[in-house]
Amino acid sequence: CAGFIKVRLKFLNDTEEVAVVRPEDTVGVLKSKYFPGQESQMKFIYRGQLLQDQARTLRSLDITDNCVIHCHLSQSAAAALPDPIAAPPEASGATVSAGSLMIPVIMVMLAVIWYCRINYRQFFTAPATVSLIGVTVFFSFLAFGMYGQ
Q1: Model confidence, pTM
Q2: Residue 121 domain-assigned?
Q3: Do 23 and 58 reside in the same domain of the chain?
Q4: β-pairing verdict for 42-46 and 49-50
Q5: Residue 106: CA atoms inside 13 Å, Cβ hemisphere, count?
Q6: What are phi and psi of 148, to 5 degrees?
Q7: pLDDT tens for residues 39-95?
Q8: CA–CA separation, 128 vs 12, rounded Å?
Q9: Is residue 61 part of a domain?
Q10: Residues 97-148: tens digit of each pLDDT
Q11: Does a structural domain hold residue 92?
């Protein structure tokens, strides 16, 4: 064990693996030793910095015994991008999710409640009207904040 250091490789799911390496080993050697075949997909982060230079030694990066290197296995560029030729024509349209429709639906509901407030005043008390004004102002700021960017 003389001349070796232990480096903790921490993954996104909070699991850890202990790597026994030499301080003279490079980032590329560490990747190829512990992640064979996945070197190009593996990203190392140490002290908030992405370790991109594969030729840098662990000593030059101030990685010492029991340091933590965060590991992220990214998808390959070819697998992450869909094939435009193989994609069906229906998939090329814009997708609509329920989250993107929440603000417009709430604004339409507020408009209907305001219509009822104006035409059926006898059913709305003063606290209900004040609450309706507050909710309208809140959602107006929310809508302008989201769509005004």
Answers
A1: 0.48
A2: yes
A3: yes
A4: antiparallel
A5: 16
A6: -90, 10
A7: 888 899 998 888 888 888 888 888 888 899 999 988 754 444 444 444 454 555 556
A8: 48
A9: yes
A10: 676 777 788 888 889 999 999 999 998 899 999 998 999 998 888 777 777 6
A11: no
